[in-house]
Amino acid sequence: PRPRPPVIPQPADGAISLRAADAEIFGGHLALLAGAHPHLGCWTSLDSWPLWRVRLHRAGTYRLEVEYAIPAHRQGTSVEIELGDQRIPFLAGNTGGWGEYVRADAGLVTLSAHDELPVRVLPKSIPVGAVMNLRAVHLTPAAV
What we know:
By secondary structure, this protein is mainly β. 0% of the residues lie in helices and 54% in strands. The chain has one domain: Galactose-binding domain-like (Jelly Rolls, Sandwich), CATH 2.60.120.
């Protein structure tokens, strides 16, 4: 088993990228796939999910984005991005293929400072066999 990843610190510019290689994986149907651009794939169960722990020192409103890939015949997966006690719904649309990644907007979220904010991507429905290939979840301070 992989060791538990460390808490991810927030950089000075406030933007946080939660990359696949830094996730703690729960469940037996999700794997870190290495390569030039590591991603989480082989994700075929509602009982599997990635977790990141973030040290968030800057409270405020953030743009939430999901960097993922899924072909047309597998689109329609519904997930919730859980940030502490908040859950943001996200529907995975066609990106053009398993290797065609997009960075899609999941909305705005207001967060308070945390020493260890848990962030999970929880699948809610898998209409056709697999959730998605997930490269990263991004939090960027929003201009208010």
